[in-house]
Amino acid sequence: MKSDIVLNFNMCNLKKFFFLFIFLNSCVNKTNYSLDPTTPLGFNLQYNLCGILKICIPKVDQAPIPGDSGKLNFTNISKTSITLNWTLAIDDNTPQTAIQYLVYYSTKNNITALADIKANGIPFDSFVENINTKTISGLSPRTSYYFNLVALDSFGNQAVYVNNNAYTQNDIIVLFRNTFSTSGNMSGRNGADSLCSTSKENFFIAPNNITCAGIRAFVSFSGDNIVDMAKKYGFNSTNPIVSGSNILIANNWNELTTNNSIINSISTSQVSISSYWTFTTNTGGIFDPANSCLNGTNDTDTYNGIIGDATATNVAWISRIPQSCNTLRSILCVCY
Known about the structure:
Number of strands: 16
Strand content: 15-25%
Helix content: 10-25%
Structural class: alpha+beta
Largest sheet: 8 strands, mixed
Distance between the termini: 97 Å
CATH superfamily of the largest domain: Mannose-Binding Protein A, subunit A
CATH topology of the largest domain: Mannose-Binding Protein A, Chain A
């Protein structure tokens, strides 16, 4: 009987020392003995370390995993607000409905990592659970903002989505001129718009060198009248029109295109000192097919195109006289 007790005691201690040896050897020699309880050795190691030796491996809770690889999408962008949308995160212990979210934003690209977000980002409201959209209000017009999202689980672990940026809408429409003069052959609407897009890179538009959501040539084409551009291309017709030097030209798009006068001339506004193609009649910003250089595709003296007067504030500013299509003129451009 005594020998049996001694044997059992020794076997028990031997078992303890066996698993202690494996555990310590793993730590000292960095031997890859897995503590994963789903593997036989890992289960035995965890079971014996905790149950026999009272060396328990604490369970490590993982941070949430952002949905859709952490992508942030934007909708309903206005002058002063932007709506963020995302896919809900998942977590190993916290139910998806209990994960909380908080949006941070900055005017600089400095909120990528969690520490940077906390140091540089501005939080909008506070953590709210189980939401996948948030409208950030109180923003400034014509400004670039960077956004990121932090997901928080029930154990205090935090995960970061992928930062993204968006621009609030402009509260002005800017008129500038293309860099180089062109004949009446500007390859139609697409060609004229391309000239303007290229020219934008050479102009500083005040204030803040605004970013243009769209750029169009201020020229009428068949089925594409100047007066209808705001509706056709989706910009706010109630915004004031200013020059790149922020000098007011007209209070709104209707005043710019259908009134018989503008507030400041194109030359006074420092947009251009020379005349420019418009292909537009003097009756409300409408395309003039007889004086359009064949819809902006001809550069010979056989055809004519309407030009505007840079010094005028009456209707001549948009429709003065026809000019031969082989003449080199500027075109005005709209940044909205």
